[in-house]
Design goal:
By secondary structure, the protein is α+β, with helices and mostly antiparallel strands. The protein is built from 4 helices and 13 strands. The N terminus and C terminus are likely disordered. One of its GO terms (molecular function) is dioxygenase activity.
Length: 258
Amino acid sequence: MHRARGLWRLVAGPRPGAGAATGAGDGAGAGLGLGPEAEADPGLLHASSPAVERRLRGLALVRGGFLSPGEAAELLRELEPVLGRRPYQFDHWDGAICGYRETERAQWGGAGRAVLARLGGAFPPGRPAQPLVHVLDLHPRGHVGPHRDSVKFCGCTIAGVSLLTPSVMRLVSCRPGGGWLELLLEPGSLYVLRGAARYEFTHEILPDHASFFGGRRVPRGRRVALICRNAPQETTPDAPGDSPAFIGGTETEPPPPQ
């Protein structure tokens, strides 16, 4: 369906071991820089080593309270009628994702327009987010496996906001022994992946049974995310170990041979 077409590239990489808003209609993240110089909320990052944290500083960004409660509620009111008509999918031909439903959306109400305008600050000059926003609804028993978004369909920057329940996003280096970084994605939070975090690390949303952050249990229920991506350029970096597998034109069948 929609965004599943060619979006994810799976990588069989190494696995590691085990805010308040400022006002209605204006998330706490408004007005704060979101470029590579931006600082993440330190309490929402957990790295395998100080070296990994230094390497991904400004490249893997997480900010709590980017949405106000009012914005989050309005976004959900707008999305629920659309998502509710779609069944959750629990099978996928290569296991990239389980327990999900999704849609793409270009037209938004006032809250959506305000949030997307702020999100625009995460993208580099001349490389804005694409107009279609990927809305991904993850079932409480669902998860997103380790992947890099396909360089055929996604450019240098990914930015998303999370709704409903907390979750843990784990980034793992595509190079064996390269380490990992975890982001705690609270409801209303923002995350941004760019540079090495986008091209040289896989990312995943942990299933409920494995949802821990710094040794602390993070129970995970249903999660809805709005994800923005910019368009790819003709030449895009390729990471070692990247699989040629792509999600094809349907949700359950592999793409035809090239």
